[in-house]
Amino acid sequence: MTDSFDLDAYLRRIGHDRPVAPDLATLQALVFRHACTIPFENLDPFLGRTPLLDPASLQRKLVQGGRGGYCFEQNLLLRLALLAIGFRVTALAARVLWGHPEDHVSPRSHMLLRVVLDDGPRIVDVGFGGQTLTGVLRLELGIGQPTPHEPFRLLPVDRDLKLQTKVGEEWKSLYRFDLQEQWPVDYEAANWYLATHPGSHFVTGLIVARPQPGSRHALRNTDYAVHRLDGGIERRTLANAAEVKSVLAEVFGLALPDGLDQALERLLRPATPR
Q: What distances in angstroms separate CA 223 from CA 111, 206, 207, 208, 237, one per listed residue?
């Protein structure tokens, strides 16, 4: 699968210009640079298109095309890079808890990675939107682990593991998962569902996120926010399509796809009273 992967192009895309090896230092650097450079975005589902998950399409869109993507695209691309370097990588699937009660049962609609190093396994995930991991977590339970952004921790829950992040003084759950290996074909059904179901939030609205050193930028429809690590938050409502496109290009660094004007027109159109 890695024979046709252009590792040099990927490293240029994320701005990594140092030697790489299957070690912790490289893994930490790639995760941080990937998360801060390739934005989380759902422009394809928002435009009525299903993202393609094959290696050539991932490279064409996220590496050469100046675009981002959501969890399957982000973590499948990172997996290709890690395999090309020589890491031992297992793809996993998770049930999202973010924004839901702790006992919520959702489908396995999220992807993350387990990477085995000489001193033990790590969890990495560059595809969870506004709370994307910018660091590497040891597969150890019950301890808060620092990252370049918020602390995270893993907890046992039934036969699964639960990932939490500390927001202010409160631990909030992102998702629960087990260690059963998944393959790219396993993500195709979830990808199609999230990109086509009329009730999917990836279809009904615009979601973009990008961490930067010291902050996280987030766009949900026309609501744009900057969350700073010191607790400060800046918010503003974008007034029109031109402002949305400006933020997408200038803040998130995205190449704007064809058809975006029409989709933004639908998004910004006032609701018709019944």
A: 26, 10, 10, 10, 5
Catalytic member of 16, 125, 149, 227: 125
Active-site residue identified among 16, 71, 149, 217: 71
* 17 catalytically annotated: no
Q: Which domain holds residue 209?
A: 198-267
Tens digit of pLDDT for each residue in 65-90? Answer: 999 999 999 999 999 999 999 999 99
pLDDT 10s digits, 205-253:
999 999 999 999 999 999 999 999 999 999 999 999 999 999 999 999 9
Instruction: Please indicate whether residue 227 is annotated as part of the active site.
Output: no
**Three-state SS at 193:** helix
210 domain residue, yes or no: yes
- Count of the separate structural domains present in the chain: 1
Note whether residue 256 is domain-resident.
Answer: yes
36 is catalytic: no
pTM of the entire structure?
0.95
The active-site residue out of 110, 149, 217, 227 is 110
